[in-house]
C-alpha cells in the first residue's frame, strides 16, 4: 500500500510514519522543513514543500 502523510514531522505524524513503515507501506512524508524528519528507510520518500505551494500553470 502507498500512503502520503501530511504533517509528518509532528508528534502524531512521526508516529504514523513509523507505524506505516513497520507495516511495510510505501510512505511519502510531506514536510515544510527539509531536516525535520530524521529518518531513513528504503520505503520512505520525503517531499519538502508548503501546502500553499502551487504548480506552474501553462
List keywords for this structure.
alpha/beta, 3 strands, 58 residues, three-stranded parallel sheet
Mean pLDDT over all positions: 89
Strand order of the largest sheet: 1-2-3
Number of spatially distinct domains: 1
Order of helices and strands: EHEE
Number of strands: 3
Indicate the radius of gyration in whole angstroms.
12 Å
Q: What would the principal axes of the Cα set say about the shape? A: globular
Strand content: 25-35%
Helix content: 10-25%
Poorly predicted runs of 5 or more residues: none
Describe the structure.
This protein is an alpha/beta fold and 58 residues long. The protein has 1 helix and 3 strands. The protein has a 3-stranded parallel sheet with strand order 1-2-3, covered by helices on one side. Helix 1 links the parallel strand 1 (2-6) and strand 2 (26-31). The protein starts with a strand and ends in a 10-residue tail after the last strand.
Produce the secondary structure layout:
Elements: E1 2-6, H1 11-22, E2 26-31, E3 44-48
Parallel strand pairs: 1-2, 2-3
Concise synopsis of the structure shown:
21% of the residues lie in helices and 28% in strands. The protein has one helix at 11-22, and strands at 2-6, 26-31, 44-48. Helix 1 (11-22) links the parallel strand 1 (2-6) and strand 2 (26-31).
Amino acid at each position: 500500500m502507498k500512503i502520503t502523510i501530511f504533517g509528518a514531522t509532528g508528534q502524531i505524524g512521526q508516529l504514523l510514519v513509523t507505524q506505516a513503515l513497520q507495516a511495510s507501506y510505501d510512505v511519502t512524508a510531506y514536510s515544510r522543513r527539509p531536516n525535520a524528519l530524521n529518518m531513513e528507510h528504503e520505503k520512505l520518500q520525503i517531499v519538502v514543500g508548503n501546502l500553499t505551494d502551487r504548480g506552474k500553470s501553462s
